[in-house]
Design goal:
The structure holds 2 protein chains of 2 kinds. By secondary structure, chain A is an alpha+beta fold. Chain A has helices at 9-15, 25-41, 72-76, 92-104, 106-134, 156-162, 165-169, 213-216, and strands at 45-56, 59-62, 67-69, 82-89, 138-139, 172-173, 179-180, 184-193. Chain A has one domain (9-196): NADH Oxidase. An 8-stranded parallel β-sheet of chain B has the order 1-8-7-6-5-4-3-2. An 8-stranded parallel β-barrel of chain B has the order 11-12-13-14-15-16-17-18, surrounded by 7 helices. Classes of the chains: A alpha+beta, B alpha/beta.
Amino acid sequence: MTALTRLNTDEILRYMGCPPERADAGLRAQAEDCAGELLGVVRPRWRERTVELSFEAGGVRLENGLLLPGEDLKRHLAGCGRAAVFCATLGAETDALIRRAERLDMGRALALDCCASAAVEEICDRIEEELHSKFPGCSFPFRYSPGYGDLPLSVQGPLLDLLDAPRRVGLCASASHILTPRKSVTAILGVAQGEIAQQKRSCLGCPAQGSCQYRKAGGHCGIS
Amino acid sequence: MEFRELLKASGPILLDGGMGTMLQARGLKLGEHPELAALEHPDWLLDIHRAYVEAGTQILCANTFGANREKLKRTGRTVEEVIPPSIAVARQAADGKALVALDLGPIGQLLEPTGSLDFETAVDIFAQQVRSAARAGVDLVKIETMTDLQECRAALLAVKENSDLPVIVSLTYEERGRTFLGHSPACAALTLEGMGADVIGINCSLGPREMPVLVEELTRWTTLPISVKPNAGLPDPGGAGYDITADEFAAAMADLTQLGVKLYGGCCGTTPEYIAKLKKALEDRVIRAVPRNIPAAVCSPARAVPVDRVRVIGERINPTGKKRMKQALLQDDVDFMLSQALEQVEAGADILDVNVGLPEIDEGAMMVKVVKALQGVTDVPLQLDSTRPEVLERALRVYCGKAIVNSVNGDEETLDAILPLVKKYGAAVVGLTLDKKGIPKTALERLDIARRILNRALNYGIRQEDVYIDCLTLTVSAEQEAACQTLEAVRRVKKELGLKTVLGVSNISFGLPARPLVNQNFLTMAMAMGLDLPIINPNLDAMMAAVRSYHLLMNIDREARDFIAAYANADVSTSITAGGKTLQSAAPAGERTLAQIVEAGLKGEAGPAARKLLETASPMEVVDGILIPALDRVGADFEAGRVFLPQLIQAAGAAQAAFEVIREQLSAQPGGQEMARGVVVVATVKGDIHDIGKNIVKVLLENYGYPVVDLGRDVEPAAVVEAVRKHAAPLVGLSALMTTTLGSMETTIRLLREEGLPCKVVVGGAVLTADYAKKIGADFYAKDAKESVDVARQVIG
C-alpha cells in the first residue's frame, strides 16, 4: 500500500460536525493543519486473511471455527463463499497525540480526532481496493464490522486472534471489546464468485439511529 | 550448569527457534489453541523440543507463551492446568542437556494509557504464571515479544516478587527501531537493567540482518548480556513465510558476535535446521568484548535523557507557595497539573518534578493518578518528589521508565527506608546534603554527607551514576555567606566524588528585589561550578536563557544550533523588568470587546482582555455580565445550526482563558475562594475508553463557571459514588460510546441510587437515546455538550 500523504478535508469537516460547504476559512485551515500533523505521527499497519465461510442457523462460521452470530451479517454475506477478514490501525502514537491535544486545546483535539477517523477510513478503503484486485471477477458487498447490526463487539478479540493482530500489528481488544489503539478497525469483506445484489451502507442497523453527530452534519461515521 | 554460570562462561549460548510455525507444520489446525499443545498433542511438543536439543539448544522455552489467565479464558483451561505439563514436556525433552525457561508472552490486552488494563492487574496475571512455574520447577524466565515497556515491567516485577529465578527480557521492534507503542531499546535497557533483569534482548519482528542497529543501541545503554532471537527474515511478500534460508540466517547471526551478543536463537519461521546451522556458524567465532560506558541517564518509555549536559528539571508541579496548584489538588483537578506540565515541556524542561503533598489529601493515591496521567500526555521523564517512602513506592511502581527519586538525605532512617525502593525499581536518587542535625554550614561538611549517601547507595547495589547530590540553596538575604558554600560544595561533589549534582535555584533570592536577576546569575555561577540538574521554572525565559547561553559558551551546543533556534527572532531587552511572560502578554487586546473575543473563539486574546476588564469591574460582573451571555449567544447559534461544534469549542476555550484569569484574581485575594457553585462530577463509564465527548462537555461546563471533577475514563461505579459524596456534587455526567458499556452506565446509576445520594444524573454518548436514558434511570439525557450545560443550569442554577 502506498503511504498516506493526504486526507479529504470535507470528510474531516463532516466528522467535526460541520457541513463542508458552511465551514469558514479558519476551520478549513485548522482541519488541513491538523491533517498534516496527524499524518506525521500515524503508523498505519494492517493484516488480512481470507477464510472459507459456511452459513448455519446461528450465523456465519469462519474456516477456523469462529461463529459470527446474528442474522444481519448472514444476510449481508449471502452469496459469498469466502471472506477477507482484515484489521487496520493507526498506532498508539495517534492516541497519544490526541490525548496531549485535549489538555492544550480541545478544538484542536476534536479536529485531530476527526482527522484520525478520516485516516483510518482511508486506509480501509485502500485495503479494500487491494483486496478487490486480489479476487478478479468477484463481487463484494460493503465491508462489515463488529457493532454493525446485530454482530456483537465481542467478536473483536477472536477476529484479532485469527489475524495474529496483537503480535503482528500491535492491535488488541480490551476486556470490554474495545479496540486499542483506539483509531483502529476490524472488518469482514465478503467475496462472491460472480454478481450479487449490491447493498448500500446505511445507519439502519446502528443503535444511534441517525441521531449522532455525523448524521446531523449530513455524513456517516464509517467506522465501528 | 545453572543459567547464571552459563552467562559467566565464555562463548555463545544457544537458544531455541520457532514453536508456533513448528506446531502448524505438525498439523495444528487453524483455530486450535497452541497453548494447549502439552495437553492435546504432547508427542508433537516433545518431538519439537527434542529436535531443538539435538540441534544444540542450551535453553528450551516451554510452550507457555500465551498461557496466561486472560488468553486461556477462551480455552476453558486454567494456568495451573497448562503450565506444569508444558514445563514437564520441555524438561523431558531437555533430558539434562538443556535448561528450561518459563516463556512469558504479552497478556493480549494493552495496558493503560493506550489500553485499559491496570498495571497491578497485569502484575497479578504474570505472578500467577510465575508461581505455577516455580512450583513445577524451571531454571529461568524468558519474558519475550513485548511491545510495551510497562508490560515488561509488570512481568519482571512479578518474577522478582514471586521467585528468585533469573530473567531474560526481550522486546520486539519495528524497522524504525521502536516497538509498536513507540518504546525504544535505550529506554528498555535503562529501565530493565535498573529493575534487575539478567539479560536484555530483541526477538521476533525483524530478521537477523536488521539486528545490528538495534544491538548497537542496546550496547550504549546497558552493561547486561544481550540476547537476539529474530525471525527467519522479513515476511515474504508473496505468502505466509519468511525470506531467508537457514544458511543465510546462520551467517548473519554469527556476525553479531562482533557486536558482543551473548545469546543466540530464532523466532517465527526458524526451525531446528536454523538452530543447527547457527550452532555450526558460531563455532569458530569469538564474542568480541564491546566496552560499555553507560552514562547517567533517566527515561520514560519513549525518551532517554542522558545527563551529559545541563538538564532542566521543571519545578511547577508542587503546591508549595502556589495557591492555584493547592486548589487543583483539593479539587482533584489533574488537568490543571497536566497543563502545567505541558507548558514547562514546551518551555524547555527535560525532566519534570512531581510533588503533590498536601496534608488534606491522600498523597499516595494522588501521586499515582498524576504520574499515570502525566505519562499519558508527555514523554519527558519524571522526578518523583515526596518525603514519604510509601508515596514514593506507589509512584515508582506505576512509573514507566527510569525515574528520579527526590529525595534521601544523610539521615540513616531515611536512607534505609528509601534506598531499597530506589534499587528495586531501578531509579536514580537525589541525596540532600543534610541530616538529623540540619544543614551543615560548610562545603566540607556537606561533601561528607554526600560521601556517606553515596556509600550507602553503593552498598544497596545502586550505581554511582544514579546518585545525584543536592548541595542545598539557602536564602542569601538571610545568610549571605551561604551561597559561596553551596557553590563550593557543588564543585567538590562533582570533582571529588564524580557525582551529578542537583540544585533548587529560586530559593536563593527570597526576600530580595529583582529576584530574576539574582536567580539567573546564581544559576550561571552554579553551572560553572558543575551543576547538572537545576530545578527551576522553565517558563521564565531568563532561566532558560542562562542554560542556553551556558551550553553555547561551553561548546556543548554545537554550531549554536539550539541557541539560534531559540533566539534568532527574539526581541531581547537588557533592562531589568520584573516578571515573565504573563505580564508581557498583558498588552491591550486591540479594539475587540471580551464578548466579541469569546464569540470569535480567540483564545490568545481572552486572558488579557479579562485582565483589563478586572481593573474596573468585579469578577462576578465579568462572569455574569459578559462571559456567560457571550457563551449563551454562541450556544443559541449552535442549536440553531448557525455555528458548529468546532466553533462552540473554540468559544469555550476563549472563555476558559478568561475564567483562568478571574480564578487567579479570586484566589489571590485575601480569603479569596472559588466561585461557590455546585460541583459536577463527570466520568466515562467502566469499560469505555472513548472520552473525547466527555472532555468536550467538561470544557463547556467549566466555561459556564461550574467546577468539574473529572474522573477520567474506564471509571468504576464505586469511584463515581465516592467522588459525588466527597464533593457533595448535585450533578453527575456519565458518558459511554459503545453499546457494550451501557451496562456499566446502568450499574453506576443504580449504585448512586442505592447509596441514597441526592444527585441528579445526566447521560450522553453516541449510542444513547432519550428513551434508553430513561430506562436506565438517568434524570436527563443530553444529546450534545450544549445540552449538558442546559441541564447543569436547571439542576445547579
